[in-house]
Every structure is written in structure tokens, then in C-alpha cells.
């Protein structure tokens, strides 16, 4: 009798997990469609991302607002990168990095959920977060080698 109850409980847990997974997948798909619609409306092309929907949305909307705020002269890539970095540091904690330009290569290590790469017209934007660890003691000194 006890075994039947345990098996029934296992089936309910498995069904609940399955339903949760389906709901999560549907939500992720809906978020992707919503983000794609926002990007299209802002004339932004999302190229690659490992970032929650809400942060990606903030990045592209903030970028568009920066570009639209100065209709006559587009801000320099350095000013754009600094503004985006400061915005993300303020909202989501320190250690965000931003690269903006027309032509650049990159190979970065980022924190999980902290990477997006997108473009607006001819400018590309790379925004990523790294982990910050406090240094509690000075690093050990390596012995000097004489050659």
C-alpha cells in the first residue's frame, strides 16, 4: 500500500516538473518574440546573447534613446560605450564592459547571463559582465629567475 502511495506521489512530482518545463519554454518563446518585435521597431539587430530578456530589452532601448537624443550629431563610440556601461553598473551591479565601434574583434569571458551583441546601422555594440572578486590578501610573490 505504501509503495502505491509513493509511486503516485512520484508521478505527480514528475507531471508537475513536466508542466513547469513546458510553461517555462512557452514563456521563453514569448519573450523571444517580444524582444524581436522591440528590436525590429527600434531598427536594432540582435546578433548574439546570453542574457535575460529584461536586460537585453534595457540594453537596446537605452542604446536607441542615446542615439535618438542627439539627432544632429551621433555621439562618439567611446561616449556611447561609457554611457551604456555606467547605466548597467548602476542598475545591475559593477563589472560591466561595453565596446562600441564599426569594426572590432573580440574574444571575451563573461559571467553567465551577462552577454549581448547587437548592431544599430553601422555601429556594433558588445556588452558583457565579468565576475568581481574582492582581494583579501596580496598575491604570493613569484621567485625571480635569472637568465
From TrEMBL:
- InterPro entries assigned: DLC_sf, Dynein_light_chain_typ-1/2
Compartments reported by the entry:
Cytoplasm, Cytoskeleton
Q: Name one GO cellular component term.
A: cytoplasmic dynein complex
One Gene Ontology term of the molecular function aspect: dynein intermediate chain binding
Keywords of this entry: Cytoplasm, Cytoskeleton, Dynein, Microtubule, Motor protein
Name the SMART domains for this protein. Dynein_light
Q: Which family does it belong to?
A: Belongs to the dynein light chain family.
What is the official name of this protein in its record?
Answer: Dynein light chain
Name the species this protein comes from: Lithospermum erythrorhizon (Purple gromwell)
Q: What is the lineage of its organism?
A: Eukaryota, Viridiplantae, Streptophyta, Embryophyta, Tracheophyta
